[in-house]
Amino acid sequence: xxxxxxxxxTGARWIxxxxxxxxxxxxxxxxxxGALPVSDSDERLxxxxxxxxxxxxxxxxxxxxxxxxxxxxxxxxxRWIESTADVGTVLEEMQTHRIxxxxxxENKRLVGIISEADLAQHLSDQQRARFMEGVYA
Length: 137
Description:
Layout: H1 4-7, E1 9-10, E2 15-16, H2 21-31, E3 35-39, E4 45-50, H3 51-57, H4 70-73, E5 81-82, H5 87-96, E6 101-106, E7 109-115, H6 116-120, H7 125-136
Parallel strand pairs: 2-3, 5-6
Antiparallel strand pairs: 1-7, 3-4, 6-7
Domain CBS: 8-66, 73-130
Keywords: CBS domain
Organism: Streptomyces oceani
């Protein structure tokens, strides 16, 4: 059984909800990622922030990214998966909630993130087709 820990990208980093969006964008550039998990003051997942969120939710509205925070754009209930979850559970979570990136948690700490590309490498052709239809339909 392949687990979330075996397919995740390691080295994922939190960004505090209090961090400004310009700093978030700089961290995304440095890490070469398009999304960051957002943490509250207790280092608990409270949302996800994407590069698209910054552009559409801040810049396109004429707001200053040095004055808006990651917490300003984080909304909804964040989804995550335990590192011991099997690939089928990862697939179901991402498909059900139509998400493309899934933080991986172990002992209440962020240990990685699974992208749709990471997941796709571990699916059968039939599972991959069902996933793409569920997330992109």
